[in-house]
Amino acid sequence: MNMLKSFLVFLALISMPSLASAQTANPVPATVTKEVAAPVASTPAAAVAATADAAPAAPKSMDGSLPGYTPMRPDYENSVGMPKPKEIDFQEQFSENGQYAKWINNSILLPIITLISLFVLGLLFFIIIRFRKAANPVPSKTTHNTFIEVVWTLVPVLILLGIAYPSLDLLAKQFKPAGKEAVTIKVTGYQWYWGYTYPDHGGFEVVSNMLKDEGDAARGERFRTDNDGPAQLAVDNRMVVPAGVPLRIQTTASDVIHAFAVPSLWFKLDAVPGRLNEKSLTITKPGVYFGQCSELCGARHGFMPIAVEALPPAQFAAWVKAQGGAMPGANKPLPPAIAPKGESVAEPTAAAGTATNTDNTAPAAVPTK
């Protein structure tokens, strides 16, 4: 009897999910919303004036140009900022750290590597020929040689010390903090594009995507031309920076780990979600410098190019203005006028209800009784 009861309970438990799914759920009553006219808020005159002063960003053209700014054409003739065909050396460097690193590689590391490789190869051939069985039927039973052991210990130590000093010096220079006058640029990695924010110039962000070739772009979509850069390295919006000015590059990411890398500037820095990494950089020559994401970040990792355009400071200021930003210190008040000797300058006093003079024009004369 107990077994029968247990069996019936088991059948009931099995049939409960199917019965529940067969029932139709009660429809959720639709929420009735009542449209209410929003109250009209009065806008202060100061807010209107501030809005008028902040110039909006100009619309982009099909070639990326803006009022006062035309994208620089890459230097294909000298392969500046891009890889060369059949190149086996580092790219030509356009930062002080990059030039120093390339000198270490070409003047210190490569000669040492070449000499050690030739020495070991010659020693190997000497042993094969000198101590072969036909020329040396009775092998030597020597187990120790103090002189040779001292030499093969000291020489590698001296070689490593000679390599260590410039290497540590380069490492210290790469992570030297940027000064107060440096221009800050925040680089954010997304799947699969880049965003460049300029906190010193109003906080606007420039979003950068890879440009497709003409045959792959949709109708009406901007496509790559030779003025933009090589295939799979050209972007619609470049990271524009001033040349010859210290830069503070900060990197982060919004999803997965990326890496901001530009070989011709000797710059590579991971972009990690939730972290803000920072390195300084100074580009020595105006030009366009290309790079790519150097951390495997998903399906379209190979389609996250980087294009850095270094402009003279005056042209960079024009680009910032075209983006709707402002140069630091552009809105600082003018210094007070200096009176000639023997004269005094009266301090301006603002009466109640009098508008403040903000256009640097001469104030209106006060009527006298």
Describe this structure in words.
The chain starts with a helix and ends in a 47-residue tail after the last helix. By secondary structure, it is an alpha+beta fold. It is built from 5 helices and 10 strands.
Summarize the structure.
This protein is of the alpha+beta class and 369 residues long.
Residue windows where pLDDT falls under 50 for at least 5 positions: 17-55, 345-369
- The H-level CATH homologous superfamily of one domain, spelled out, is Cupredoxins -  blue copper proteins
Report the radius of gyration as a whole number of Å: 35 Å
The portion of residues assigned to helices is: 25-40%
User: Looking at the structure, what is the overall shape?
Assistant: extended
Sketch the topology as an H/E string, one letter per element. Answer: HHHHEEEEEEEEEEH
Do you know the CATH topology of one domain?
A: Immunoglobulin-like
Report the count of strand segments: 10
Name the average pLDDT. 80
